[in-house]
Amino acid sequence: MVLAVGNGTAATDPVTAAGPAEPASAPHAPLPPPGFMDGCLKLIEQERYDEARQLLEPVVANHPGWARAQLYLALTYHKEGRYELARGLFERALAVDPEYHVAKFYYGWCLYYLGEPAAARAMFEAFLVRKPDYADAIFALALVDFDADDVESARTRLNRVIELAVAATDHATEAKARARLADVLVRVGQLAAARAELERSIELNPNNYETYFKLSRVLDRLGDGAGAERARQMHQQVRQRIRPAVGSQPAHREP
Question: What is the pTM of this model?
Fold first, then answer.
């Protein structure tokens, strides 16, 4: 399963990692059959959120102490960008199991999109205690830093994401980190370096149309009008090709 983050690229999803144990007993209702939760996860992967909710809602109602079911139901709303609805379910999952680190990761993104950066930072930092080299959580903290105008911290974190992505031959993650590093470089006036990062990002992921637009603006500022126009044309071409395939998944990515 993947989660789109940051500038719309995908990162390996943490939801398949080991989570809290299933309920020990359910005197008032039987547990779903083996494989039920995996089937729900598959529906979420396929963006069949309504179908997943129809299966998960009675399970959550009958087994409110099952953190994994709460998390999966939260994801059906989170991936549609319905963050307020997702929020309560993430909170319930963490109330059941305060150490459920996967829930902390997604709840962090939820809070980020709800405009609560301090709370989001706390969730990502708590998640990284368990998985200190998880690139997407480091990337998330870089975004929080950048929004707070802490450009040096953002730069350090993004360079770490790039280092991890190169080691893992993860081109998508490296591409999104380099595109965001370019934002940092633009903010501090290092336009030539920003151009190099954007061009490398495009080499790694030529389908990210937002990167072409960023490149066009940098080239304009560098006085390369012809190059800027080519980048704008590529932005339009790639956007028209990619856009119909984009579903309801929020442009974030978002262990």
Answer: 0.86
